Amino acid sequence: MAQRGSQLDPLKFSCSICLDLLKDPLTVPCGHSYCSSCIQSHWDEEKKKGIYSCPQCRKEFRQRPDLEKNLLLAELVEDLKKTGLQAAAAENDQFHQK
Hints:
The chain has a domain at 12-75: Zinc/RING finger domain, C3HC4 (zinc finger) (Herpes Virus-1). It has 3 helices and 5 strands. It has helices at 36-46, 71-83, 85-97, and strands spanning 25-27, 33-35, 52-53, 60-61, 68-69. A 3-stranded antiparallel sheet has the order 2-1-5. The protein has a two-stranded antiparallel ribbon with strand order 3-4. Strand 3 (52-53) and strand 4 form a beta hairpin. One of its GO terms (molecular function) is zinc ion binding. Keywords: Metal-binding, Zinc, Zinc-finger. Residues 15-58 form the RING-type domain.
């Protein structure tokens, strides 16, 4: 059970392709989620090879899987944006880059 006052980690809601907060998150059959445009672009490139894979775990799919919007994840990302944690994450990134 989550503790009161604990904050959500914005990095858990980031796309591993573009590294930003997820935009229109889609979930692939292995369970990983990506921005809609990121995974579509990734798979457009892989179309040439004829095998589609998850960029994170490398699980391969013979046919391009149908993707569904992850509604819960989309709502959580919107909540993060509303609470300003996105700005906090950007400040954290700048601090670590110095």
